[in-house]
Design goal:
By secondary structure, the protein is α+β, with helices and mostly antiparallel strands. It has helices at 22-28, 78-94, 109-116, 152-160, 228-231; strands at residues 5-9, 12-16, 52-55, 58-61, 72-74, 133-134, 140-143, 166-169, 176-179, 205-207. It folds into two domains: 5-76, Ubiquitin-like (UB roll) (Roll); 84-207, 2-Layer Sandwich (Alpha-Beta Plaits). The protein contains five helices and ten strands, in the order ββαβββααββαβββα. The strands form three sheets. Strands 2-1-5-3-4 form a five-stranded mixed β-sheet, with helices on both faces. A three-stranded antiparallel β-sheet has the order 6-7-10, with no helix packed on it. Strands 8-9 form a two-stranded antiparallel sheet. It is globular. The structure holds FE2/S2 (inorganic) cluster (FES). FE2/S2 (inorganic) cluster (FES) binds at residues 35-38, 46-51, 61, 63.
Length: 235
């Protein structure tokens, strides 16, 4: 008996395996579903909601929802696209993202999503919240101004580095990434070689002294929009 099932995304039938999530099945078929908190090396938590699709008419986070035979998925309706734009907009105004001064510019997934969605200026008022910068560690910096609370650093430290350097603390607008050191990141067992220092999608957790090692013009999304690598595999 074949363990292959069939799902439909935006009218296109694709083959999937029962253990896959919608996001994984779409990726394998060359259909890009935008995402931010999800990363292939980490367990998905479905927190950012950028990947929400309509699944048999109901909104579902594609990164955590398993596929089922016959499932009908809508990924690019005007309402879904607007929903994603709204979320991205909110991330920009709830932090302090000064892209032109950020060393992650060109390789930042939030910035790249904004470009992909044609966002030139957020539709919501900027909050300009007061956020801290933790430069206490000799090799890694934590800039809370740029954090989007995707928890990739939290999961990477736990799942890949076998540490527990980062946690999500606080609630609502006060929510932020905390560290398990006595006072700051410099008091933790964080190392620059940790995957947690690598998987931040924005410029929040960054390694020191390597910010401009890759020149602007040769960064991840300088030549092609985010998602192009997946769409390039389209059959
Ligand atoms: S990528 Fe699915 S909720 Fe963030």
């Amino acid at each position: 008996m074949s363990d292959s099932i069939t799902i439909t995304i935006d009218g296109k039938e694709i083959e999937a395996r029962p253990e896959q999530t919608i996001l994984e099945a779409a990726d394998a078929a060359g259909v890009y579903i935008p995402r931010l908190c999800s990363h292939p090396d980490l367990k998905p938590i479905g927190s950012c909601r950028v990947c929400v699709v309509l699944c048999d008419g109901r909104p579902q986070a594609a990164c955590v929802k398993p596929v089922m035979d016959g499932m009908v998925i809508e990924n690019e309706t005007p309402a879904i696209l607007q929903h994603r734009k709204n979320i991205i907009d909110m991330m920009f105004v709830e932090g302090n993202h000064f892209c032109m001064f950020c060393e992650k510019s060109g390789s930042c997934e939030l910035q790249a999503l904004a470009y992909r969605f044609g966002i030139t200026a957020p539709q919501y008022p900027f909050q300009f919240p007061e956020k801290e910068i933790d430069a206490s560690h000799p090799d890694v910096m934590l800039d809370h101004n740029r954090c989007v609370m995707c928890a990739r650093c939290v999961r990477a430290s736990q799942e890949l580095d076998g540490k527990n350097v980062f946690q999500s603390i606080g609630r609502g607008f006060e929510r932020k990434i905390g560290v398990n050191g006595e006072r700051a990141l410099g008091d933790t067992e964080m190392e620059a070689t940790d995957r947690a220092a690598e998987l931040c999608p924005v410029g929040c957790v960054v390694k020191k002294r390597v910010g401009f090692a890759t020149p602007i013009g040769r960064r991840d999304y300088d030549a092609a929009p985010i998602g192009s690598n997946i769409e390039g595999e389209r059959s």
